[in-house]
Write a structure and sequence with these properties.
Blueprint (H helix, E strand, L loop, with lengths): L6 H20 L1 H21 L5 H32 L2 H25 L5 H5 L3 H25 L5 H20 L5 H28 L6 E6 L6 H14 L3 E6 L4 H8 L3 E7 L2 E6 L15 E2 L2 H14 L6 E3 L3 H19 L5 E5 L3 H12 L4 E4 L8 H5 L8 H11 L4 E4 L2 E6 L2 E4 L2
Parallel strand pairs: 1-2, 1-7, 2-6, 7-8
Antiparallel strand pairs: 3-4, 4-5, 9-10, 10-11
Helix pairs in contact: 2-3, 2-7, 3-4, 4-6, 4-8, 6-7, 6-8, 7-8, 11-15
Length: about 425
């Protein structure tokens, strides 16, 4: 069989490839990698007087090209450790170890290739010591960069770029044995490492030594609210002897809101009451915009499903479903926690979460908002929100299953749990 290609199909193929290359080059992650590779080269070339060294040039180019993929790999390593062990410290070790191995290999290659000052390297513990301090400083600097971004200070990419640049420059000067720079390099590495691992260790300690009583906080997408969510509420209520639990669903997560604003993602279509998100041509090809899936029920609908499921389970008196739209839109869950603390001054707070991607993000927010006692459950069941969104049955309570069926049929009025809702393309509004 002979395949026949027209001139138009050839030009279309070339255009598609050119478009992909163009999007890759325009990607902020690609530019971040190129920036890191350039700063790495210039810093070590200056500090170690090795600008023409092939080993330095090769490592710099590798960093420039590989950095976006490394970020994805480190995220996966952290997620695996979180799901396997359920401790923040384990997740941070999962992120730390791949970077340490990479940094160790880079220092060995440059040391063997004659790109580094041997006396300077010996003064910071050789390749192993330099890699350890550099990795600690890098992890701590990135943590602080994103911590500031979550509080409205700076831009996520710019903050990380500043942290990476500062760490690379200081590491180059410190490993060259330059007085004061060496001491600053060692101090920055260990201090930032203490911050990075110390906060996680204290969080794990609070989760194990938590006192009983108080109010539970339970945040998540609940897309949709399923049987495991109910099991977590029941078990946490019993184990921590909580007076009540406040559940607050995400509205539009900050990362998605920013991507919508930049035109990187959009709502492509509606399907069975779900909004289907998709990337646009402006999207960063190196970013996973949808780590928890692309199908989302509207926030109002997710809130209604939580209320219905909790009422059906007989827990309405012990569970409050909060929906602080203005607070969430301006300050995220950090603002919601601040509002709850103001409403319940001096009351002990417990933060409920799972160990999946979204659950550990919520755990980080709990840890950054003061002395909240984490309560986590390792996900070992087969209940999957992704499977439910694809039509799997038996994973949600009866009332949630009923509502999802009505949404799939696109009925104008949804009736469930003794309540009536107007259905506007999947958005449920009570009071019809």
């Amino acid at each position: 069989m002979v395949a026949v290609f027209s001139a138009d199909s050839k030009s279309t193929g070339v255009s598609a490839v050119t478009g992909k290359i163009g999007r890759y080059v325009r990607s902020p992650s690609t530019r971040m990698g190129a920036f890191a590779g350039l700063i790495f080269y210039l810093s070590y070339a200056y500090a170690h007087n090795s600008g023409a060294n092939p080993a330095l040039i090769g490592v710099s180019l590798f960093i420039a090209v590989f950095l976006p993929n490394y970020a994805k790999l480190s995220n996966k390593a952290e997620l695996w450790a979180n799901n396997r062990f359920g401790f923040v410290t384990a997740g941070r070790l999962g992120r730390f170890l791949p970077q340490y191995i990479f940094n160790l290999a880079a220092f060995w290659v440059m040391l063997l290739g004659g790109a580094l000052n041997k006396a300077g390297m010996a003064s910071v513990g050789g390749a192993a010591g330099a890699a350890l301090v550099t990795t600690l400083a890098s992890q701590g600097a990135q943590y602080l960069a994103l911590f500031l971004y979550q509080r409205g200070i700076g831009d996520a990419n710019r903050n990380v770029l500043v942290g990476i640049a500062a760490n690379l420059i200081l590491a180059a000067l410190g490993t060259a044995g330059i007085p004061l720079a060496r001491e600053a390099f060692l101090a920055a590495g260990f201090l930032l490492g203490i911050v990075f691992f110390g906060i996680g260790f204290l969080s794990d300690l609070r989760s194990k030594l938590a006192p009983k009583g108080g109010i539970g906080l339970y945040f998540g997408t609940y897309n949709p609210f399923h049987n495991t969510h109910l099991a977590i509420v029941r078990r946490a209520m019993q184990e921590r002897r909580l007076d009540k639990i406040i559940i607050h669903p995400t509205l539009v997560p900050r990362a998605h809101a920013e991507a919508f604003r930049k035109g990187e993602i959009h709502v492509a279509r509606l399907e069975n009451g779900f909004q289907i998100y998709d990337k646009t041509d402006k999207a960063d090809v190196n970013v996973d915009y949808f780590p928890t899936g692309r199908m989302f029920l509207p926030p109002e609908t997710r809130k209604a499903l939580i209320e219905l499921a909790v009422a059906e389970a007989g827990m309405a008196g012990k569970v409050e479903v909060a929906f602080m739209r203005e607070t969430y839109d301006t300050r995220g869950f950090q603002g919601v926690i601040a509002a709850i603390k103001k409403a319940y001054p001096g009351v002990r707070l417990h933060g409920l979460h799972g160990t999946d991607y979204g659950g550990m993000l919520v755990r980080q927010i709990y840890d950054e908002c003061g002395w909240i006692y984490p309560w986590r459950i390792l996900r070992r069941d087969n209940v999957s929100a992704t499977a439910i969104r694809r039509g799997e049955k038996g994973m949600t309570s009866g009332v949630v299953t009923d509502v999802l069926t009505q949404l799939s049929a696109n009925v104008p009025v949804v009736v469930a749990g003794g309540r009536r809702f107007r259905n506007d393309n999947g958005v449920l509004t009570e009071g019809v």
